[in-house]
Amino acid sequence: MRPAHLVPAGAVLLALGVIASAAQLARPASSVPGPAAAPRQVLVTSAVRACPPTQGGGAGEVAFIARPASAASSSGGRAAGGRGEAELKPLPLAGAQLRPLSPIAQADPGTLSILTTQAAQSASKKAATVSAGWSLAATGAMAQALEAEEATGTGVGSVRCGEPGSDLWFVGPGQQSGAAQIQLDLMNVDALAASVDVSVITDAGVVQASNETGITVPPHQTVTESLSAQAAGSSVVAIQVRTSIGRVAADVSETSSHGGTASWLPSTTAPSTQLVIPGVPPSGSAAGLYIVVPGSSNARVSVLAITAQGHYRPFGTQTEDLPGDSASYVPLTPLGGTAAALELTANVPVTAAVLVPGSGLGAFAVATAPVSEQAVVAGNTSGSGLSADIVLTAPAGSARVRLTTTAEASAASAAAGSPATGSQVVSVAAGHTVTVPVSEPRGAKPKSVFAIVITPLSGSGPLYAARAETQGQNTVVSIIPAVSALTTINLPTVRDSYDAISP
Hints:
With 503 residues, this protein is mainly β.
C-alpha cells in the first residue's frame, strides 16, 4: 500500500499565508473587486450537427440553411469570420472502409439548400452499399442559426440533424404497441472516441442488459444498435443515451409491425418536474401520451392541454399516478379541432412524448425548451397535397412572434434581384395556442421547399413551437420541434479567484 504523507497543520497555514501575501503584492490596484461586469455577447462562429443514416440505405437528402435574413437582423447584421463554410461528411459504420466520398461544401449564408448525400460504398472489390451517418460542421457566418434536417423526397424535414450531447432521451411505443424493430444510431462527430451507456426502461421496469454499457463509438464513425430484444413484450419503451467519455449524437427509428416506412422518434428533453410538448395536431383518432419516470419514486402527473380556446384538462382534475423506474402509456381523448400543447407538472422528474396517428407508426411530438432568440425549420412544403402549419403556444404570458419564410427565387424574381421571402407577425394570448398555415413566399420557384424562421419579439413571454406537416385533411406526415438556433451566445465574466489549494 502506498504510504500516506501527513503535513503538519501549522505548515499548511504558513504556506497559505505566504501565497495570500504574495498574491496581494502582485495584484494590480485595478483588480480590486468591484461590481460584477455584465456577460459579454459574442457571435457563434462554429457549430456541428449529425444526420442519421438514410433509412433503407442509399442516397438521401438534407434540408439545410444557415443565417437566414431574419436571424442576421437579430444579430445586428454582423458577420463573424467572413462568410464561413459548412461541410457535410460521411460517418461510416464503425470499422467500414469506404470508397472516397467528396464532402458537400456550402458557403452561402441565407440560402436554403437541399443537399443530396451519395450512397456510401464499401472499398472492397465487390462494392456494397454501406450505411453511414453524416456530420455537418460549420464555421463563421455559416454556423449562425444553423438548421439541418434529413428530408424526404419531397423536401419535407423528417428528423432534425441533432447536436451531440452526453445525456439524450427518447420515449415511445414498444413492440406490443406496433414497434416491431427499434434501431438506435450513435454518431461521433469528434476526434475523440466516445464511450456510451444505453439504459432501457419499459412498462415492466428497468431492463437489465449488460451488452449495452461501454459501447465504443470511434471518432467520425457511426455505431448502430438494435434494441428490439430489450423492448420485447413491452408496450412502452424509454431509452437513455449517456456518455462517460466524449459525446455523441443519437437517433431512434421504429418500424411498424404492419410494414412501411420507419418512423423517427425525436429526442425529448431531460426529465423535469415541468414539461411542455408543443405541436400536438388534431387527429382523426386519439393520440397517445408516453411518460417515463426514471427514478425510484412514484410520480403524480397533472396534464393540462393548452388549446386555441384556452386551458383544458383531458383527465379532469385527477392526476396520473405512475410507478417509478417505469414507462407508461396514457390514451388522450381528442383535444378539439385545432392543434394544442400539453403541459405536464409532476412531483418528481419525468419526460414524455406524444404519438399522433399517421403514416407508419405516426409522428411524434416531444417536450422542448422555449424558443430563445429564434428557431428555424428548414424542410417545408405546401404542394402535392401537403400543407405546413406552425403551432405556437404561450403558456405563461402573451407573445408576439415574427414568422419569416424563405425559398429559392423564381427565374423572374431572380432576374429582378428580388429575394423570395415573406414575413408576418402573429400574436398569441397567454394560455393559448395558435396554429398558423404557412406556404412558400411570394416570388418563390413554384412547388419549392421553403424554410421558416420563428422569432419571438421583445417583451414576449415563454414561447413553444413546432411545425406539423400534413397530407390531405388530417394525415400527419412529420412534426419538427422548434429548437433555438442561436446567432449569439453570452460569455460570463471571468475573474481571478482561489478555488482550491492542495498542499
